[in-house]
Amino acid sequence: MANSTVIGRASFIRGRVSGDGDLEIAGRVEGDVAVTGEVVVDTSGLVAANVSAARIVVRGAVKGDLVADQVLLVEAGARVVGDLRAPRIAIAPGGLVRGHVQTGAAGPARPRAAVAPARAVATETKARPVVAPPVVRAVKAAPPPPPAKVVATKTNPKPAAPARPGPPPPVVPVLKKGTKAVQKKRG
């Protein structure tokens, strides 16, 4: 870290932060962050903005999109609310991410409503085409099969009641023979 800047724990910055070199954020930043080196959001750091850098390490909290040119690390205890884009992304157990995660080239985000299919792009210097990474979509799970029905037979005179989740059915009191139920008149 030859050329690095530290935003201390007691510091609060509102506005755009940009520059060459590395940046360590231990305080609070509200505004876009764009540097050429590495951005480290310390455990006490809070960033409410989009962050773009060559490498990003999150140990604190970020509310915004993260775009890294090389690698993006979300460590244990870190919280990110926003989209992640980088060629390599690592989320440690205990790290929270709420947003889309996209690996591959860290270019501009594709619109969420209409995702274009992967296309081959030929370059002048290379003969083989370059293919965009595939888009991963969630697949809805099939519903569970219905429970099997039990039929009464001579060996099994009473079908078994299926197990029901929830509380048991209400108990109705039974009166002995010869007693009459007393009903109150509402008047």
Give me the secondary-structure topology:
Blueprint: E1 4-7, E2 12-14, E3 17-19, E4 22-25, E5 28-30, E6 33-35, E7 38-41, E8 46-47, E9 51-58, E10 61-63, E11 66-74, E12 79-81, E13 84-86, E14 88-91, E15 96-98, E16 101-103, E17 120-121, E18 130-131
Parallel strand pairs: 1-4, 2-5, 3-6, 4-7, 5-8, 6-9, 7-9, 8-10, 9-11, 10-12, 11-13, 11-14, 12-15, 13-16
Antiparallel strand pairs: 17-18
Could you spell the SSE succession in H and E letters?
A: EEEEEEEEEEEEEEEEEE
Mean pLDDT: 76
Shape: elongated
Main β-sheet: number of strands, strand sense, barrel status? 10 strands, parallel
Radius of gyration: 30 Å
Distance between the termini: 88 Å
The computed structural class is mainly beta
Walkthrough of the structure:
There is one protein chain. With 187 residues, this protein is mainly beta. It has a domain at 4-100. It contains no helices and 18 strands. The strands form three sheets. Strands 1, 3, 4, 6, 7, 9, 11, 13, 14 and 16 form a ten-stranded parallel β-sheet that branches. A six-stranded parallel β-sheet has the order 2-5-8-10-12-15, with no helix packed on it. A hairpin with an 8-residue loop joins strand 17 and strand 18. The chain starts with a strand and ends in a 56-residue tail after the last strand.
List keywords for this structure.
187 residues, 6-stranded parallel β-sheet, single chain, mainly beta
TL;DR?
The protein contains no helices and 18 strands. By secondary structure, it is an all-beta fold.
